[in-house]
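Structural prep section.
Before we set up the soaks we want a predicted structure of the protein with magnesium ion in place, mainly to decide which crystallisation condition to try first. Input record follows.
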Amino acid sequence: MSERYLLCTDLDRTLLPNGLQPESACARPLFRKLVSHPEVHLAYVSGRSLELVLQAIAKWDLPRPDFILGDVGSSIYEQAGQHREIANPAGSETRPDQWRRLEQWDREIASDWNGSSVIDIVTLLAPVDGLVLQEKHKQTRFKVSYYVAPQVDDKAMRQQMQTILANAGIRASLIWSIDEAEQLGLLDVLPASATKRHAIEFLMRQQHFNPGETVFAGDSGNDLPVLVSPVQSVLVANATVEVQNQAVQEAEASGQAAALYVARGNYLGMNGNYSAGILEGFVHYIPQAENWLQEASP
Ligand SMILES: [Mg+2]
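Run finished without errors. Recording the tokens verbatim:
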């Protein structure tokens, strides 16, 4: 069987250069070159909904992925057409009707919430101080998203939330991240098995990619479950020092230090931020990919 690889990447501040640090000019063209290789299968793994992922693809002119793992892993989509090589009318890949939701994943995660809906969970968590529900379009079938003021004691808050949810028979993951630019805490309530990590592991099983053939790249809070897991992972160099320290410590504590690579820059003259870090890390795990980057462009 020929070689095949699964490259899973976060979007905001990982592939998308929408953070405070600069992007190396040749990084995204080289990323496109890497993923255009027929061996490389591409998945975008994002806190964004399908519609917002498609908006990002159009706005930043990103390569079309094979899979979209949206809503922090609580939804998985595949292209409705079988092969991305098939000629589609220009722009059709960014139409939501070109993507099919994997219902098998919905069924796997639904049992964690014990039949509860988003509205049930919002009602249960209403007594928790400091939670502000995000806009309606950011709530999805299996994700309740809140804003939290940055000065709130998020650990105590998450403990209180877990107690309330557990008493209602709900198994939930609480995913915390910080929007650096807005100085806002973001807290997502998901089915316990619907993190980015579990969604990637489901996709690996379903598409028959083994651990040595899979690489994930991320930058922040909702990427941590993957970064510290056995999935081969890359932390891009623009990640904050706090996230770098936390990822390294937790990966060591869970015996997964060999499956975490922290991009440091200086690869092909690039700075390790965003897609430069993705490339640096992918080549760390899959050294033969370096040849694909060096090939003359067609
Ligand atoms: Mg990110």
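Observations: The chain is about 30% helix and 20% strand.
Flagged for discussion at group meeting.
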